[in-house]
Input
Amino acid sequence: MARAATTTDAFNAVAEPRRRQILDLLAQGERPVNDLVELLGLAQPQVSKHLRVLREVDLVHVRDEGRQRMYRLNAEPLKPIHDWLAKYEQAWSERFELMDEVLEELKETERDDGSND
Amino acid sequence: MARAATTTDAFNAVAEPRRRQILDLLAQGERPVNDLVELLGLAQPQVSKHLRVLREVDLVHVRDEGRQRMYRLNAEPLKPIHDWLAKYEQAWSERFELMDEVLEELKETERDDGSND
DNA sequence: TTGACGTATTCCGTTATGGGAATATGATTG
DNA sequence: CAATCATATTCCCATAACGGAATACGTCAA
Output
């Protein structure tokens, strides 16, 4: 087996920086492909290809507008990532680091005998 | 150019479900490799390989304990993912959906003429 | 219809993945 | 030292990504 397809889920789709950039741009509002091409400084085919991936994991929605195609963000598929991260969030919070120190101190104390009196 | 290496950053490392599982297990505390092997039901070499990737992006730390190797979670590299997601969080919150509805209603009102009285 | 514009698809080459299987390395025990 | 346990590395294979270049498709204007 090889690496999971980028279209497997949001985790994989979003691992690519360009696709994150695209989402960031779309977060500001609907945009046609050529806008993205210009803003990203990428070749048009590459942008279309990235958009295809994002479409397949439902991170963007498209709407036809004449010859243009308006892409719009759909953030919902990002939720599972956020949910998964939730349990780690405390790990980088200041309060947690503080608790870590306290635990260290407790260990020290125990090692000193346990009966401190 | 090919797809970015899994060891490029946490985004890529964590796109693989097994590696997320490993982090989930380590979130409960330090563990030797064989523990993970058993809990994951994977072959030992695969686990070691996944751990290597996680090590390279600094998502785990190792400590030698006799012949065992104790792996410990280091969640900090996950922070960039969380930070990136922050701007999308509102997109799936109830309050935002509510605001969406209100905006829709406003549009309706405007379309009706603007002066409703 | 023809041409031009906006976008999508296809083909290419390079690179790396992840699992399986086998084997290598390191530490401990007898 | 030899045997064993714990873990890491290597080799193999099938699969696919990403960028570049070329091209196909769909719509609108003249």
Q: What stands out?
A: Helices of chain B lie at 10-13, 17-26, 33-40, 44-56, 79-89, 94-111. The CA atoms of residues 19 and 50 of chain B lie 6 Å apart. Residues 1-4, 32-34, 37, 44-45, 47-49, 51-52, 66-69 of chain B lie near DNA strand D (CB under 10 Å from a C1').
